[in-house]
Amino acid sequence: MDVAALIFFAAALGLAAIAYRRQHKLSALKASLSHRDEMIRHLRAQLQAAKAEQAETAALSAAIANVNFDSVMVLDEDLRLIVCNEPAANFCKTHKCIGEPLPVLIDAPDLLELVEMTLREAEGLEEHFIVDERHYRARTQLLPNGEQRFVSLAIQDISELVSLNRSRRDLVANISHELRTPITRIRLIIDSLFLDADKPKRKASIQSLKEIAMETDALLWLAQELLDLSMIESGEKILRMVPTPLKQVIDEASERLEAQAEMKNLTIISHVPARLGALCDVDQLRRALGNLIHNAIKWSPAHDAITITAAEQADEIIVSVYDNGPGVRDDLRERIFERFYQGDSSRSGDEGTGLGLAICKHIIEAHGGRIWAEGNSQGRGGRFNLTLLKADGELLPSESATLSTPYQQGEANF
User: Fold this and answer.
1) Which of 44, 176, 203, 410 could form a disulfide with 224 if both were Cys (CB 3.0 to 4.6 A apart)?
2) 250 to each of 28, 206, 272, 285, how far by Cα in Å?
3) Which has the closest alpha carbon to 390: 363, 357, 367?
């Protein structure tokens, strides 16, 4: 075989090898494409199932959201509306809600500030605001999603609730005013019977009159408590904060309850430094202290003592009222300050209205202070503590303690 033939044979053999390799690669590529097509079909099927599931979930979520009477919205970090239910869409000022910023949708600066504060502080908040003379309560919650953050906003119309509360306060105030006049007249008639010239001679009659007087005092106390609570909750009572000797206020509150203390042979002991001055509304603080002392008288055993102390702590004064009664259970330390809460009826004998401590809490918190009860685990007996702002500089004359307030007339019956 000549050289030319060998060269031709070698070339043909090389071409055949190249063709074989290309054919092999083509077959492998076809198999790969077939496998990829199968994967694509499988992924498309999964995508379709996911879309169907997502649509079902979205429809279910929308149905649940629309059943809710509250307006529910989701906003992005730019305060643009992402999702809302039908009540929220009806609440907005414009028909095109999605994608619009919150200030365009709702004209409520307090609501805008609430959402911005939620983004800044990264925690859920709650606020009350008014739009077009209607009252709403808004609740927010931060929803982090990777690097993005969203804010959920729920808005509830509480106008009817506010109106009912206002009607309730007016009703309580009206009942209190109606009760005060006949009760006061009865009390005056009874007091006149105790005058030396007209005093009944029979001991039984005197005892009966004393019992009537006690019941009348209880009714008058109830009427005053209802009136106090109504005025405090309505915001009609304006505090007149003046520097006042604290001992003077505590002594006056104690003196007004001496008659009730004597019925149980109780002694009211006060350990209050004369130099301590508190920044307070005299009549309001006297009312709160009177309620605490009255509570101590009710729970103290006969022939015992009630102790009142006061001490400085930084820029505050801590006032404590102690008695040797059954005390407060640890699990009731917060609840006893709720309106109309009576605690353990087996110990109270259904006495009182459950308003006295609630009024104390309102008054002390309005003074910028705190009030709390110590539980039985912290010692025996009833122990109530409150804080007041310490007065700076010279105290005003004692005339400041006689400022006229809506409470002054009723407090004469302590």
Assistant:
1) 410
2) 99, 32, 8, 9
3) 367
The structural domains of the chain, ordered by start, are 66-157 (3.30.450.20), 160-236 (1.10.287.130), 240-411 (3.30.565.10)
| Partners of residue 154 on adjacent β-strands | 72, 139
Cβ neighbours for 270, distance < 8 A, ≥ 6 positions apart = 247, 250, 251, 254, 307, 308
Backbone angles phi, psi at 170, to 5 degrees: -65, -40
The contacts found for 210-217 with CB under 8 angstroms, 24 or more apart, are 212/186, 213/187, 214/263, 216/183, 216/186, 216/187, 216/190, 217/187, 217/260, 217/413
Burial of 127 (0-12, 13-18, 19+ CB in 10 A): middle
Task: Tell me the sheet residues that pair with 196.
Answer: none
Sign of dihedral through CA atoms 360, 366, 367, 371? positive
CB within 8 Å of 328: residues ≥ 6 apart = 336, 343, 373, 374, 375, 376, 382, 383
Gap between the Cα atoms of 65 and 395, Å rounded: 60
- Closest C-alpha to 64, from 36, 46, 86: 86
Output the tens digit of pLDDT for each of the chain's 414 residues.
577 777 766 777 777 777 778 877 888 888 888 888 888 888 888 888 887 776 665 555 555 444 455 788 888 888 888 888 888 887 787 777 888 888 888 888 888 899 889 888 888 888 888 888 888 888 888 888 777 888 888 888 888 888 888 777 776 776 777 677 777 777 777 777 666 555 555 565 666 677 777 777 777 777 777 777 777 666 666 788 999 999 999 999 999 898 889 889 999 999 999 999 999 999 889 989 999 999 999 899 999 999 999 999 989 999 999 999 988 888 888 888 877 666 554 344 445 556 788 889 989 998 999 999 998 877 678 899 999 999 875 444 443 333 333 333 333 333
The encoded tokens of residue 8 equal 């031709």
> Cβ contacts of residue 181 below 8 Å, gap of 6+?
none
Structure tokens at 369: 């202070």
Q: Which amino acid is at 337?
A: F
